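Dissemination and training. As part of the outreach component of the grant, students in the summer workshop were shown how a complex can be specified as a set of sequence lines and then modelled as a single object. The example used during the hands-on session is reproduced here so that future cohorts can follow it. Participants entered these lines:
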Amino acid sequence: MMLSERELERYDRQIMIPGIGIEGQERLKSTTVAVVGVGGLGCPASLYLAAAGFGRIILIDEGRFELSNLNRQIHGWQRDIGRLKAEAAKEKLTALNPDVEVETQTIKLTEENVDEVLGEADIIVDGLDNWRTRFLVNEHCVQHRKPFIHAGVRALYGQMTTIKPGEGPCLRCIFPQNPPEAERFPVLGATPALFAALQVIEAVKLVTGIGRPLVGRLLFFDGEEMHFEIVDVERNPNCPTCGYL
Ligand SMILES: [Zn+2]
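and obtained this result:
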């Protein structure tokens, strides 16, 4: 996909990055990313995806902004309370970068609709707050050999990994049992912002081929100690989700 004069200027500083160039930027423009969950992770992730020039962004969230979301879900401004998160986010992303196409899906992902909703996405970014839906997205990604950039946060802690089905473990290889779910948990907004930025770095790397994605590696962050740690994680050959690949 060719870049306009305006796009060449907008993306000038990242086209300069060795390994991206005009070709890499054109690849970003040809890529569709689905952001599942427009919350603490999905708001900043979609912001940086749009700024980076991913051509099409699909925002999936059926929720509306509440006052208690606003410490971390940065597309939700005071005036957006009560509005659909995906719609308010689309407005901001389009205002930031009119050269990206933003689509909203204001529905809840289910086993029945997951393939249709995520069907056109090349990469999935995890902006979820529950494991049930994460494993549903993981299954879609394994079936369609699609990268899934997982992140999860709590308070000043977080974790992430990049799933490339067949090349490294899937989410089910790493977490054979569903971790416990919590309705309401503590989050400092800067923690998901940090992980969202890392997710976008991973997405750019997957598309342009630069660097080494976080496949087969799980990154942990402890913001209290300001400590990052990466541990290797392996495929489970008997994984019920990806074992057949
Ligand atoms: Zn697996």
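The chain has one domain: 31-232. Students were then asked to discuss how this feature might be tested experimentally.
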